[in-house]
Design brief:
Layout lengths: L14 H36 L12 E3 L5 E4 L5 E2 L9 H11 L11 H14 L9 H10 L6 H17 L2 H11 L6 E2 L1 H9 L8 H9 L4 H4 L5 H17 L5 H9 L17 H15 L3 H6 L3 E4 L3 H14 L7 E7 L6 E5 L24 H11 L8 E3 L4 E3 L4 E3 L10 E3 L1 H7 L2 H11 L1 H10 L21 H12 L3 E3 L4 E5 L5 E4 L4 E3 L3 H11 L21 E6 L3 E7 L4 E7 L14 H12 L14 E6 L15 E6 L14 H8 L7 H10 L1
Parallel strand pairs: 1-5, 3-4
Antiparallel strand pairs: 1-2, 5-13, 6-7, 6-18, 8-11, 9-10, 12-15, 13-14, 16-17, 17-18, 19-20
Helix pairs in contact: 1-5, 2-8, 2-10, 4-5, 4-6, 8-10, 10-11, 14-21, 15-17, 15-18, 15-20
Length: 688
């Protein structure tokens, strides 16, 4: 066979040629798409540039109402604004704002892709939204044209309007407009008004220290305003200064010097019209913003309707009583919280004497020792856990207690070194005997007392020590009013509530309260303790000075430390905690230590003047018998000064004060126990 030459493939059929041809086609297609995309982008940008920006959205003030539907406040109804040009703003304020809000403001075109990626990575690391990615332009677009709902559609519109603004306005115009509308809290908008409000100066005269403080406020005015929390404001200032260092605006030495500078912040204007319940308003404002996830400015301008539990009449009484009772003591402070124990509704709240001078809410502050007003929680625990009764007796005398398995000792004293020999629980409560209280806490167990306090809603830190009985661990008036409400409500704790309902501007319900109810302890225990606590206002009790003011059954407990005076008490309709003291560790004198009681008494009676006096309801499981106060045993004719005492059924005494019951008491005492009628209760209360 002859060799037949093989056919050589054409060059265009080779693999390399086919690859080159495909690459050419792909490049041609990509170039065409790129040109098309660029054309579309140019057309879109030209369109965006030619279109007018939207009309700025209409702001609707949010409103707050009391429990009867009376208007408490319309937020944002009166606004403090003062526009200034960019050249009239301190360069340090501009740098501080750019450093903390948008470092690449002069480089991006309305949105920052790198910032978005960076924020997404940080948020992913923390598994929550720790860092935002909005530029100054986006923030301005949102504030001017959009709502604050957290949706993707809103974010897309925000970015669109931000780019549109960048096409139609210069960077300086955007920054100037931003600084003139940004919210600094206290109905104040723009850096011009903020500089005047906080420092009483023009925006161009702000120092680095002042600028860094102001630049930190807009992130959260209710957290970082120095009027609300100076410590948080200064911490935020340091963050801003450090950010300025990282951005290259200032050296570290300048930042350190500014952080040390003493700031002279003006008090809120006292000539402004006095407002009712300012501390309560702040509390509700913060709670509502947290519930809905709103920033402070969003809250003010969202047109919300917040229906609260406050009773404006009770609030007015509270404010008047505080002002009147402390009129002769200009530096003394006070706090008052009143809660309806049946519903958990906060009816009145006073956080201090002068809101314009100091916005610190002492009603919510857990920094003051309750003293002996904490003892009822000890005795409630002892009644429940250790089987104490009103007849349980300890000797009131100077005593050194050992604890921690004998390794430590504790030696309390009674006020004025007054001791009463052998006393029962009623006398211990009425006289506020410390020796009896420490015996009780050690017998019941400090851990059990803390557990009881926790179940009663007290969350402040405590340690299982003998001094717990004397209220040495700070709590807030709010916690104490809520805890004593359980005693008034037959052992049932209703979660404290300040907001009933929140609606948007269209009337849609955004939030509705559903307070939790929990039985903390059985009714007989709270009833027995309540009967004992009424003795505080009887002759010889620590609250007896106000017995003539009280016209209804009231139970309560006084508390006094070197720096604090308390009275926490309740009726079936109202549980109220009153604290009086100084802010800066200054001791109260003997006269000042008695001011909480008249404040409590006048507030309670005036608030409930239209409510007929009611007895505390008698539950099943309690019995009343006549006892001999000297021995705690059943009384008869041979026992002078017998007293009707209430016991948990089955714990009442069975022995007589003498060997045989007297003739006239044979029928009564021979039965061992008898229930007390409501009429006997009423007569006993009336006679006292």
């Amino acid at each position: 066979m002859s060799d037949v030459p093989k056919k050589q493939p054409a060059p265009e059929d080779s693999g390399a040629f086919r690859f080159a041809r495909r690459l050419k086609a792909w490049l041609s297609f990509s170039f065409t798409c790129l040109l098309l995309g660029a054309g579309i982008m140019i057309v879109l940008l030209l369109f965006m540039r030619s279109q007018a920006l939207p009309v700025s959205k209409t702001e609707t003030a949010s409103e707050m109402y009391d429990v009867h539907g009376e208007l408490i406040e319309a937020y944002g109804a009166v606004k403090n604004r003062q526009s200034v040009s960019l050249r009239d703003i301190s360069p340090k304020l501009l740098e501080a704002t750019l450093a903390v809000e948008d470092r690449t403001f002069y480089q991006h075109y309305g949105f920052d892709p790198k910032g978005i990626v960076r924020a997404a990575w940080v948020n992913l690391q923390h598994m929550s939204k720790v860092q935002g990615a909005g530029t100054i332009t986006q923030q301005l677009a949102r504030n001017l044209y959009l709502s604050h709902e957290r949706t993707w559609s809103r974010k897309i519109k925000e970015t669109y309007y931000a780019v549109q603004m960048e096409l139609q306005m210069s960077k300086d115009q955007i920054l100037e407009q931003y600084l003139n509308q940004i919210y600094y809290g206290h109905a104040t908008y723009g850096i011009g008004a903020a500089a005047k409000l906080f420092f009483g100066k023009e925006a161009k005269d702000l120092t680095l220290a002042e600028s860094s403080l102001l630049a930190g406020i807009p992130k959260g005015p209710r957290y970082y305003s120095p009027y609300y929390d100076m410590d948080s404001a200064l911490d935020r200032q340091k963050t801003v200064l450090q950010t300025m260092v990282e951005a290259g605006y200032i050296p570290q030495s300048e930042a350190d010097q500014a952080a040390k500078e003493k700031l002279h912040i003006l008090p809120l204007e006292e000539h402004k019209k006095a407002v009712t319940a300012p501390y309560f308003r702040d509390y509700v404002r913060g709670a509502a913003a947290d519930l809905l996830g709103l920033e402070d400015k969003e809250f003010v301008e969202s047109g919300l309707r917040i229906y609260t539990t406050l009773d404006l009449k009770a609030q007015a009484v509270a404010e008047e009583v505080v002002a009147k009772q402390l009129e002769k003591y200009p530096e003394l402070q006070a706090a008052l919280v009143a809660i309806d124990p049946r519903t958990g509704y906060v009816k009145a709240m006073v956080g201090g004497r002068n809101y314009a001078q100091n916005q610190y809410n002492r009603a919510l502050s857990s920094t003051r020792q309750p003293g002996s007003s904490f003892k009822p929680i000890v005795y409630l625990t002892a009644l429940k856990e250790k089987g104490f009764t009103p007849g349980t007796r300890f000797k009131s005398e100077p005593t050194t207690f050992t604890y921690d398995q004998g390794r430590q000792t504790y030696t309390p004293n009674n006020f004025g070194s007054a001791y009463y020999d052998w006393i029962d629980m009623r006398t211990a409560i009425a006289k506020s005997d410390n020796i009896y209280a420490v015996h009780s806490v050690l017998e019941a167990g400090p851990d059990r007392v803390i557990d009881m306090a926790r179940r009663m809603g007290i969350t402040s830190p405590m340690k299982p020590m003998p001094s717990l009985a004397l209220g040495t661990f700070p709590v807030s008036p709010y916690e104490m009013a809520s805890a004593f409400g359980i005693l008034a409500n037959q052992g049932v704790r209703v979660e404290p509530t300040a907001i009933v309902r929140i609606e948007d501007r269209r009337g849609r319900v955004l939030y509705e309260a559903n307070p939790k109810q929990e039985t903390v302890i059985e009714p007989p225990y709270t009833y027995v303790l309540t009967q004992l606590m009424e003795s505080v206002f009887d002759q010889g009790g620590t609250g007896s000075r106000v017995s003539s003011v009280l016209k209804r059954p009231v139970a309560g407990k006084t508390g006094t430390t070197d720096t604090d005076a308390w009275l926490v008490g309740y009726t079936p309709e109202l549980s109220t905690a009153v604290w009086v003291g100084y802010d800066k560790g200054r001791n109260i004198n003997n006269v000042e230590s008695h001011l909480a009681a008249p404040l409590f008494a006048e507030f309670t009676e005036r608030t409930l003047e239209s409510v007929p006096p009611k007895l505390f309801p008698v539950p099943e499981g309690v019995v009343s018998v006549y006892v001999d106060p000297a021995t705690g045993k059943l009384a008869n004719d041979d026992c002078p000064g017998s007293r009707l005492e209430t016991f948990i059924q089955g714990t009442e005494p069975t022995e007589y004060c003498t060997q045989q019951p007297g003739k006239s008491d044979a029928g009564k005492a021979g039965k061992g126990k008898q229930k007390r009628s409501w009429w006997e209760d009423l007569k006993r209360w009336w006679s006292n």
